[in-house]
Amino acid sequence: MAFQITKAVIPAAGLGTRFLPATKAMPKEMLPVVDKPAIQYVVEEAVAAGLHDVLMITGRNKNALENHFDRMTELEATLEEKGDVDRLKKVEYSNDLADMHYVRQGDPRGLGHAVLRAHMHVGREPFAVLLGDDLIDERDVLLSRMISEQAARNASVIALLEVEPEAAHLYGIATVEATETEDIVRITDLVEKPVNGTAPSNLAIIGRYVLQPEVFDVLERTQPGKGGEIQLTDALQVMASENIAGGVYGVVFRGRRYDTGDRLDYIKAIVQLAVERHDLGPELRPWLKQFASSLD
Ligand code: UTP
């Protein structure tokens, strides 16, 4: 019988330099997307896919992350006194969302290094990795499909997105072979942030992975790569090319994804999500149209 995955690892120890000075004393994962911090969307996504055990990899200045998923007794008492039930519910919602665990990365030596910090907690089980600054729209299925592919193929599975060729140098890029299933591909090669114009395809790795535990063994011997960081992509490249623990498959995602670690994408995400909200959309939409026409 296939192993039931229960653990999600969320690396959130990066420096967030693209968002300075906002991220000088605050993690970028706490930046609000409409009225929730980005990280809450990611934890909600893990829980919705049945992953209730969440390990967050944090670093310096990351106390706000732990506080957000804990009780705020003074605030709760004040809202209760005021009878502000709606806001009280919003505040309490994240307290018991998941069984939260935290480990610090120490120096941010790369995503691969951050994932390696999860070894003790995860043990020898397949597990999911969700990047704390990558949002997948809750109306579009991705993680649960990846989890079932992992179980069916007994292999590692990563999420891929078709990107414009000009954007390929910002991502890990995959070389793939088709499988019998639409939008499921077998990865034959991976390269982290290829030099402009040299990308082997337009299939970019985005921040969702369901991995075999053997990735820890490979990460242990992965040397620093691009940017002097230990790259998860480099470890997955070894697993794919040497067919370790079933190799690596990709799920091509065709839904909505927002990169909240990038300033422009962050602004777009807020506008897109706010426009669709029942409480904000009706007023925002006409204002936005008027504003857009004033730009001409
Ligand atoms: P990014 O490269 O997007 O994050 O890493 P960053 O380094 O924080 O951002 P910039 O480029 O300086 O603005 C992708 C994910 O991996 C985590 C980040 O927190 C982010 O969720 N990460 C990265 C770590 O946890 N540790 C690291 O050493 C590096």
Hetero groups in this structure are: uridine 5'-triphosphate
How many beta-strand elements? Answer: 13
Span between termini: 60 Å
Strand content: 15-25%
Rg (C-alpha, Å): 20 Å
Q: If you average the pLDDT, what whole number results?
A: 94
**Count of helix runs:** 11
Q: From the 3D coordinates, which CATH architecture of the largest domain would you assign?
A: Alpha-Beta Complex
Stated plainly, the CATH topology of the largest domain is called Spore Coat Polysaccharide Biosynthesis Protein SpsA, Chain A
* Fraction of residues in H or I helices: 25-40%
**CATH H-level homologous superfamily name of the largest domain:** Spore Coat Polysaccharide Biosynthesis Protein SpsA, Chain A
- In CATH, what is the class of the largest domain? Alpha Beta
Shape label: globular
Total of domains: 2
Biggest β-sheet, characterized? 9 strands, mixed
Question: Which H/E pattern describes the elements?
Answer: EEEHEHHHEHHEEHEEEEHHEEHH
Low-confidence stretches: none
Describe the fold and architecture.
The protein is α/β, with parallel strands linked by helices and 296 residues long. The chain has 2 domains: 7-261, Spore Coat Polysaccharide Biosynthesis Protein SpsA, Chain A (Alpha-Beta Complex), CATH 3.90.550.10; 262-296, no CATH class. Helix content is 34%, strand content 23%. The chain is built from 11 helices and 13 strands. The protein has helices spanning 38-48, 63-68, 73-82, 85-93, 111-116, 119-122, 143-153, 214-220, 232-241, 263-275, 281-294, and strands spanning 7-11, 32-33, 36-37, 53-58, 99-104, 127-130, 134-136, 156-162, 172-178, 184-192, 203-211, 248-252, 257-259. It has a 9-stranded mixed sheet with strand order 5-4-1-6-11-8-12-10-9. It has a two-stranded antiparallel sheet with strand order 2-3. A hairpin with a 5-residue loop joins strand 9 and strand 10. Helix 3 packs antiparallel against helix 4. The longest helix is centred in the C-terminal third of the chain and has 14 residues, at 281-294. The mean pLDDT is 94. The protein binds uridine 5'-triphosphate (UTP). The site of uridine 5'-triphosphate (UTP) has 20 residues, from helix 5. Uridine 5'-triphosphate is lined by residues 11-18, 57, 105, 108-111, 113-114, 131-133, 261.
